[in-house]
Amino acid sequence: MSKNPKFLLVSLPASISPTNDHDEALTALRSAVTTDYGTVFPFSIPEFKIGTLDALVGQADDLAKLEGACETVVGKVGDSLKTILEGDEGKVSQNKTVNDKPAEQYLKTFHWNKVKYRADKPLGEIISTLQKEIASIDNQVRDKYNSYNQVKTNLATLQRRQTGNLSTKSLTSIVPPSLIIHSSDYLSTHLLAVPLTITRDFLRTYETISPMVVPRSATQIATDDEFALYAVTVFKKHGTEFVHKCRE
Question: Tell me, what DSSP letter sits at residue 225?
Answer without folding.
Answer: S
